[in-house]
Write a structure and sequence with these properties.
There is one protein chain. By secondary structure, the protein is α/β, with parallel strands linked by helices. Among the domains are: about 45-155, Nucleic acid-binding proteins (OB fold (Dihydrolipoamide Acetyltransferase, E2P)), CATH 2.40.50; about 265-295 and about 310-430, P-loop containing nucleotide triphosphate hydrolases (Rossmann fold, 3-Layer(aba) Sandwich), CATH 3.40.50; about 465-640, Rossmann fold. It contains 28 helices and 22 strands. The strands form 4 sheets. Strands 6-7-4-3-2-5-8 form a 7-stranded mixed β-sheet. Helix 22 (about 605-610) packs across helix 24 and helix 24 (about 630-640) runs antiparallel to helix 25. The chain is globular, with a radius of gyration of 31 Å. The two termini are about 25 Å apart. The structure holds adenosine-5'-diphosphate and magnesium ion. Magnesium ion (MG) binds near residues 310 and 311.
């Protein structure tokens, strides 16, 4: 039977071949695609007031937003102080009101046609003539029958995004809504269920047809909510099925070798270190050693705040593997970090005579050939590198352990490419991204977790202060004074120029200003994104060798860099950074027993405001949070030193671009579900998914057949199908 839903939308009424082309440009080709093109917003009648009510509210001192529906009577453009003002007069059942815009008159004149119906949302005001007015309101257009039906039946009206590709073929909000309405009416009953019956019943979920219908044209908010719930559940369910399958895959594998630490050399090595391992480091090391000894491959996440000392734990694990005649590899997210690891590790293992080498992108060809050869022949025991390690021509001799540093920078795919280069090697991934434990369990559910929850004892917490730009001269003086005591300083400067060229110019200009004026008696280095790794590395080493007092830098120092004498970091325009980025940057200092300082700089006004306010999250409304994000971020940096505390605040602030947010932490993104908000659905879905895979790992059973088919159809890129075929 041909699949009705796979037919092209060009045969639909009011679409046709030409419009179908523009739909195709935004990925909507078939009827099924259109069924799954959901509204971006909904308008609810219960929030609508009539104009008389609104006036009453304003008179009573109400200052919030309202929504009101009316019909356009007329509109006019007039001039005030040579500025164009556009005014629309409208009417609803109870009276008149007006909307004004102080720009874009030409555009709005085309939007607000006499006789059209609109929903207007904004703060109402009363003019000095007593007219009800909305300034720059949000607006949505209705067809006339929609507006009467809406007002009488109280249905919820959906609003669809109309991308410019559609607008170009004269397709507006109303026609799109009509087209989708027809599609839902005629075709939603042809949708096939994508969740097994037993899951639907057990969890009391809506079926797929009702869910799709309700998402488009819900009768009330409850049915909309149930539809949302089902869609979220489905996404998270399949996500957890994949996690469970992956975990299962590992569980059934056997290593050909296991690695047992010899007590004496280990002890000697620990004694040779310039410090004692913390209790937390010892604890995670025990966990890792158990895995290394076991005959099942290790698949472990090592979580620890910046500066908690993950590298040494990784090194000891690598040495155990090397001692057992195998190779170990450490993959870092940047070349500069790989080089830093190399130097550290070479230094530490010198007495042991273990051969360590580097494989990164920018190496000379002859050098590269030699290294690849030595890796293949097993001469190099510990290989440190970047993603250059996952290239095809890298072959290992006997790869026993893969360590991945700052794992959020790498995708799962890169991880598994590297892992496949060994015969079931052990895997340790390290991250400083402090996501709450429950979430880690659910999302990285195929990994075991070790946490370093302690910072080395000798550390004093970094002192964090916020100053306005006006204070910069004092801060430069502070840097000069402190440099006499041997302190080094990072001066971070976010580059916001559009082009790289301009960025470079800005960085150089800033550098010269400092060198010729404020910090003329100090030795300054400059590092930025436009220079190659070799030069970056040279500058970093020179900084580490104390050839500079101050390193002026863009955010390339962000991850992992470890220079113990650098104890001051000044972050310009600090409000531009996300919370985790700020925390990562601050983590560059405070790595010795000296008092370290993190100085955040912003515009004077913002600094003054932030320093006055002391937020308590329990009393903040979402609206207040939304309005004060920068202040809250800066404030929290001053108040908290631990990444875990900050990550919790970040969860509350979570919004575009914040770094603990989904993208940067490597958390997956969904269309409906939000992994941070829908934790309880996630955990339900996880329980069901794990139970199913536990009972029926290959999905042979009749009742799970559907799952297998959906996986094959929709998730084939995520799994080795052989697992369930
Ligand atoms: P991160 O966990 O952020 O990767 P690193 O491994 O770079 O941290 O360690 C930060 C610094 O702390 C390094 O200079 C390292 O030598 C030092 N360090 C590690 N463990 C200890 C310890 N137990 N006591 C004192 N210093 C330590
Ligand atoms: Mg590190």
């Amino acid at each position: 039977m041909p699949d009705k839903l796979s037919t092209s939308i060009q045969y639909l009424k009011s679409v046709g071949p030409k419009r179908a082309e523009s739909f195709a440009k935004i990925g909507l080709g078939t009827i099924r695609d259109l069924l799954f093109y959901f509204p971006s917003r909904y308008l609810d009648r219960s929030t609508i007031l009539n104009s008389a009510k609104v006036v009453q509210h304003v008179v009573n001192g109400f200052t919030g937003e309202v929504t009101i529906i009316g019909k356009v009577i007329d509109s006019e453009v007039h001039y005030y102080n040579r500025r164009q003002i556009f005014k629309v007069r409208m009417k609803d059942t109870a009276g008149y009101f007006e909307c004004v815009w102080f720009h874009g008159a030409k555009y709005f004149k085309n939007v607000f046609k006499n006789g059209d119906h609109f929903a207007i949302s904004s703060k109402p005001v009363l003019t000095k003539y007593g007219n009800l007015q909305f300034v720059h309101p949000d607006f949505d257009r209705f067809a006339e029958n929609e507006s009467t039906e809406f007002l009488h039946t109280g249905k919820i009206i959906p609003f669809y995004r109309v991308p410019k590709e559609l607008r170009e073929t004269n397709l507006g909000d109303l026609s799109l809504r009509r087209i989708i309405h027809n599609v839902v009416e005629s075709f939603s009953d042809d949708l096939n269920e994508t969740l097994p019956d037993h899951i639907i019943t057990e969890n009391n979920l809506l079926d797929i047809r009702r869910s799709v219908q309700n998402l488009h044209f819900p009768n009330d908010f409850d049915s909309l909510k149930s539809a949302m719930y089902r869609m979220k559940y489905e996404e998270l369910f399949y996500f957890e099925i994949l996690v469970a399958l992956r975990k299962n895959l590992f569980k059934n594998k056997k290593k050909e070798f296991s690695f047992k630490a010899k007590a004496k050399p280990l002890k000697e090595f620990l004694n040779s270190l310039p410090f004692q391992l913390t209790r937390a480091q010892l604890k995670v090391l025990t966990e890792i050693r158990k895995d290394l000894e076991s005959d099942k491959p290790m698949n472990r996440l090592l979580q620890g705040d910046v500066g908690s000392g993950k590298t040494i734990v990784a090194l000891i694990s690598m040495l155990i593997v090397v001692e057992n005649g195998h190779q170990a590899v450490l993959m870092a997210p940047t070349e500069i970090l790989a080089v830093q690891h190399l130097k550290r590790i070479v230094e530490l293992v010198k007495p042991l005579g273990v051969k360590v080498d580097l494989l990164i992108g920018g190496q000379k060809k002859s050098e590269r050939i030699r290294i690849l050869n030595d890796i293949r022949e097993g001469k190099i025991k510990i290989i440190i590198g970047t993603h250059a390690l996952i290239e095809d021509n890298v072959e290992f001799n006997k790869l026993g352990l893969v360590v991945i540093d700052e794992q959020h920078r790498f995708g799962v795919l890169q991880r598994s490419t590297l892992v496949k280069k060994g015969l079931q090697p052990d895997v340790l991934v390290m991250t400083a991204t402090p996501i709450p434990r429950t979430l880690t369990m659910t999302v990285f559910g195929d990994l075991d977790i070790s946490i370093i929850d302690e910072i080395p004892l000798n550390r004093k917490p970094v002192k964090t202060i916020l100053r306005g730009e006006r204070k910069l001269p004092n801060i430069y003086k502070f840097i000069r004074d402190k440099s006499k005591e041997g302190y080094q300083t990072f001066l971070v400067y976010p580059l916001v120029e559009e082009s790289e060229k301009l960025e470079l110019k800005a960085a150089e200009k800033y550098f010269e200003e400092l060198q010729s004026c404020y910090l003329s008696d100090l030795r300054l280095g400059l590092i930025h994104g436009r220079i190659g790794w070799q030069e970056k590395e040279n500058i970093m080493s020179e900084f580490a060798e104390k050839k500079y007092d101050v390193l002026v830098s863009t955010t390339v120092i962000e991850v992992g860099i470890d220079i113990p004498d650098a104890n001051i970091i000044v972050i310009n325009d600090a409000f531009r950074f996300g919370l985790s980025q700020l925390h990562q940057l601050r983590g560059r200092v405070g790595r010795s027993d000296k008092q370290a300082y993190c100085i955040l700089i912003t515009k004077d006004e913002l600094a003054a405001k932030t320093n006055q306010i002391n937020f308590n999250f329990d009393y903040l409304s979402p609206a207040l949070i939304e309005k004060n994000k920068s202040i809250i971020r800066l404030n929290s940096m001053i108040k908290y030193n631990s990444g875990f505390d900050l990550s919790e605040i970040d969860l509350k602030l979570r919004g575009t671009g914040d770094i603990f947010g989904t993208m940067q932490s490597g958390l997956p993104e969904f269309k409906f579900a939000n992994i941070l908000e829908d934790v309880s659905i996630l955990s339900d879905a996880r329980n069901s998914a794990f139970k199913i895979i536990h009972e029926d790992p290959k999905l042979y059973q009749e009742k799970n057949l559907l799952i297998k088919n959906v996986l094959k159809k929709n998730y084939s890129s995520h799994i080795h199908l052989s697992q369930i075929a």
